[in-house]
Every structure is written in structure tokens, then in C-alpha cells.
């Protein structure tokens, strides 16, 4: 015990520095967890969280018996597949390509161009796509000039997933590539020099040096991303929803917003959100165990 106090006294300045971060996470990440109890209560605004009656797993039973349950789950998993699996290698490839550019000015210009969309809100981003893809948008004007009929892309369920994926790639790729660029910059330059001496070209160096060096950080990010398996991004999808594509764009996130805020069913929405988080946690634990068994990389 004496040794612990001596250690704390010796490093008191370090702990003082992290106190604001601890307070922040406690207030905004841990205290809100008390609200999870609403998933098991018949929440009444007049009685509050502590006096509302307990109803057990009634909300979960109602959700599992919801007529559109499987369609919502399917849509959520499909969109998550696009965002977590198909998108995953794109920032890695972009970071590698960007790292190979030797012209510093051109590299900085490209970085700025690809980072910029991330700082644009989804409202603005989807509005830009609507201007291109609406009935009187640029794409349909080009089609009309060749004698083709206009297509309402935003209302057609066939085009929903491509539009969703392209808009996501455009907005997020640059920002997601930053951590891989940082990892690449940390690779020992002597490895590349030794590879050059042995006659290895650029592709061989990327395949045998760059990519293996990125595997640990990529594995950790992939494990963490699985926590969002059932969180497909409500704002992005919500803004793309139209009456025509509702059958493929109705996901758990939009369902939570609809039931919780539009219908005022706070407890029911909390139960659905808790279901999302629990499934995400299970997938993180399973994927972490599998990857840890196959390699030395793990989150915990």
C-alpha cells in the first residue's frame, strides 16, 4: 500500500492531466448507462426513471414478434456488410497509394480533397447526391440528351445500396486512411532499403513489407468495427430513405429513432438499442478470440 501511494505521489502530474478525460467519459459514457433500465420499465414521464413500473422482458418480446423484424435485421446486416466488410480494405489501399506519391505538393492536394468530405455533414453530402441523381439532376439531364428516359434513382430500391455505398466511400475514405498512413510512416525505412538491395520492386515491397506491417492495426480496427454490426448509421440511411426504397432502407437505427422520438416509446426504443449493443459486444468478443488464437493481435 505504501509503495502504491509513493507511485501515485511520484506521478501525480500525469494523473491530474487525465482527470478531465476521466470526468468526461464518466459523465457522457457511463452515467447514461443508467438509462438502460428503461428497457425493462413501462416508462412514464410523470413518474420518471426510478418510479416507473418494471415489466421485465416485455419490450424484447414485442420487438422479436414485430412483423417487420426479420426485414429490418436483414437490411441492417446488408448495409453493415457494405460498410464493414466491402469498405474495410478501401482506406488501406488508399493509404498505400497515397504513401507512394513522391510529389509532396500533389500528395497534400490529394489528402485535402479526400479529407474534406468527412467534415461535411451528412445532410449536405446527401443533398449533393440528390442534386446529381434527382429527376431533373445532372445525371438525368445527360441521359435526356441521349434520348433516354429519366430515372428517379433516389426512389428506386435497386439503386439504394450502390448510392449508399458510394456516398459512404466518398465521405469516409480519406479520414479512415489517416491511421493507416500513420502506421506506414512508422515502418522502419531500412526494411525498404534492404528490399531494394535484394532487387524487390514496389509491388513486392508493398506486399511483403507494407501490408504485413498494417495487419496488426487493421485487425484491431476490424474487431472494434464489429461492435457497430447492428448500428448501420441512422443519419446516413435516414436521409437516403424515400417512400419507394423503404423496404430496403428500414434498419434498426431508423426504427429506434422512429419509435423513440416520433412515437414516444422511450422504453421500447431503449430495448431495441440494447439489443443492438449486446449483439455488437458478442461479435467483438468472438472475433477478438478468433484473431487472438490465429495471431498475437487482440483488443483485450
TrEMBL record:
Cellular compartments annotated: Cell membrane
One GO cellular component term: plasma membrane
Domain ABC transmembrane type-1: 73-287
Keywords in alphabetical order: Cell membrane, Membrane, Transmembrane, Transmembrane helix, Transport
Keyword Lipid biosynthesis attributed: no
Membrane topology: Multi-pass membrane protein
Transmembrane regions: 12-36, 48-67, 79-98, 119-139, 159-185, 206-230, 266-291
Taxonomy, superkingdom: Bacteria
GO terms of biological process kind: transmembrane transport
Recorded family membership: Belongs to the binding-protein-dependent transport system permease family.
Protein name stated in the entry: Sugar ABC transporter permease
Amino acid at each position: 500500500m505504501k509503495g502504491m501511494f509513493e507511485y501515485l505521489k511520484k506521478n501525480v502530474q500525469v494523473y491530474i492531466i487525465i482527470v478531465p478525460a476521466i470526468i468526461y467519459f464518466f459523465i457522457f459514457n457511463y452515467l447514461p448507462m443508467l438509462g438502460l433500465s428503461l428497457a425493462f420499465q413501462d416508462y412514464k414521464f410523470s413518474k420518471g426513471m426510478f418510479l416507473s413500473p418494471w415489466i421485465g422482458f416485455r419490450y424484447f418480446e414485442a420487438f422479436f414478434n414485430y412483423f417487420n423484424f426479420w426485414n429490418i435485421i436483414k437490411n441492417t446486416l446488408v448495409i453493415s456488410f457494405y460498410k464493414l466488410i466491402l469498405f474495410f480494405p478501401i482506406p488501406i489501399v488508399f493509404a498505400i497509394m497515397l504513401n507512394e506519391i513522391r510529389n509532396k505538393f500533389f500528395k497534400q492536394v490529394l489528402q485535402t480533397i479526400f479529407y474534406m468530405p468527412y467534415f461535411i455533414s451528412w445532410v449536405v453530402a446527401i443533398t449533393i447526391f440528390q442534386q446529381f441523381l434527382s429527376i431533373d439532376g445532372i445525371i438525368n439531364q445527360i441521359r435526356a440528351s441521349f434520348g433516354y428516359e429519366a430515372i428517379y434513382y433516389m426512389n428506386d430500391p435497386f439503386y439504394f445500396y450502390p448510392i449508399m455505398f458510394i456516398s459512404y466511400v466518398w465521405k469516409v475514405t480519406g479520414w479512415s486512411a489517416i491511421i493507416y498512413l500513420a502506421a506506414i510512416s512508422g515502418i522502419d525505412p531500412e526494411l525498404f532499403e534492404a528490399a531494394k538491395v535484394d532487387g524487390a520492386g514496389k509491388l513486392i515491397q508493398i506486399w511483403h513489407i507494407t501490408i504485413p506491417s498494417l495487419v496488426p492495426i487493421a485487425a484491431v480496427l476490424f474487431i472494434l468495427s464489429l461492435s457497430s454490426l447492428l448500428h448501420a448509421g441512422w443519419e446516413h440511411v435516414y436521409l437516403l430513405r424515400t417512400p419507394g426504397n423503404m423496404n430496403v432502407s428500414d434498419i434498426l437505427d431508423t426504427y429506434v429513432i422512429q419509435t423513440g422520438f416520433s412515437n414516444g416509446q422511450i422504453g421500447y426504443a431503449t430495448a431495441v438499442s440494447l439489443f443492438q449493443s449486446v449483439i455488437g459486444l458478442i461479435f467483438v468478443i468472438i472475433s477478438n478470440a478468433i484473431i487472438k488464437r490465429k495471431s498475437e493481435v487482440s483488443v483485450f
